[in-house]
Amino acid sequence: MSKHLIRVSPILLVIPFLIVFFLFQLLPFYWVFKHSFFDDFEQTWGLTNYYNIFQSKLDIKSILSSLSLSFWSTLLGLTIALWGSYSLTQIKQGRLQHILLSFTNMSSNFSGVPLAFAFLILLGANGCITLILRQLDIGVMNIKSTSGLILIYTYFQIPLGILLLYPAFQSVKREWKESADLLGASVYAYWRYIGLPILIRPIIGTCIILFANAIGAYATLYALSGSNYLVIPIRISALITGDVFYDPYTASALAMLLMVILVTITIINQFLISPKKIGEKS
């Protein structure tokens, strides 16, 4: 009897998780997927919603804006995160390194409405830094413009990138660099033939995570500009909450396109970092 209970109890413990996963993951996904093919005007099923998306200037603009913001913030955030995570590994383990890691971890959770509020206080139309720069007759950046939004997106990409890359840089042992120096290898040769082949997987994986993090961002942008700057999440929100342009079926199709973009990028990521490809590059 006791043996039978021991075998059954792990399954019973998983059941609540499976119920929650079904209710909040699978069931909404099924609803979105199904209704993305429903034409509310003709009351028929088909690809009309997807066709309308690529005929709508607003939808095309939201897709292009999302891709542009995600690409540039990922590129800039990843570049700075690479230098930051490498610099952390060069600091001796102690209180300073612990403080910097704790600050990075805290910063990675500083996003959404609080981040938008902080940038408005600092660089908004009447922000403290903006007022100081005006007194000095120095031009200021409009944080609601494309360049300003790239700056904000990059800000919350950097700490996440550092946290993801720091363990990878820790796996690169100092002894390998010392051995390469003794054998006469240059800094370029060391990173080309030793460091980069080891780090290429985490770098590409981090790039994918940062891109997904940016393309799905909603709260920060909405708090800054409302619906004035179109990206895919803002457009989806406008379609399911608007009184005039209420269209949950087109919103479902946009959500599916967003998922297709993320799945495609993930597949490319798996292809690029497969062991066979890594071996060919090395």
UniProtKB/TrEMBL annotation:
<dbReference type="InterPro" id="IPR000515">
    <property type="entry name" value="MetI-like"/>
</dbReference>
<keyword id="KW-0813">Transport</keyword>
<dbReference type="Pfam" id="PF00528">
    <property type="entry name" value="BPD_transp_1"/>
</dbReference>
<comment type="similarity">
    <text>Belongs to the binding-protein-dependent transport system permease family. CysTW subfamily.</text>
</comment>
<keyword id="KW-0472">Membrane</keyword>
<feature type="transmembrane region" description="Helical">
    <location>
        <begin position="12"/>
        <end position="33"/>
    </location>
</feature>
<feature type="transmembrane region" description="Helical">
    <location>
        <begin position="198"/>
        <end position="221"/>
    </location>
</feature>
<keyword id="KW-1133">Transmembrane helix</keyword>
<keyword id="KW-0812">Transmembrane</keyword>
<feature type="transmembrane region" description="Helical">
    <location>
        <begin position="69"/>
        <end position="89"/>
    </location>
</feature>
<feature type="domain" description="ABC transmembrane type-1">
    <location>
        <begin position="63"/>
        <end position="269"/>
    </location>
</feature>
<feature type="transmembrane region" description="Helical">
    <location>
        <begin position="110"/>
        <end position="133"/>
    </location>
</feature>
<keyword id="KW-1003">Cell membrane</keyword>
<dbReference type="InterPro" id="IPR035906">
    <property type="entry name" value="MetI-like_sf"/>
</dbReference>
<protein>
    <submittedName>
        <fullName>ABC transporter permease subunit</fullName>
    </submittedName>
</protein>
<feature type="transmembrane region" description="Helical">
    <location>
        <begin position="145"/>
        <end position="169"/>
    </location>
</feature>
<feature type="transmembrane region" description="Helical">
    <location>
        <begin position="253"/>
        <end position="273"/>
    </location>
</feature>
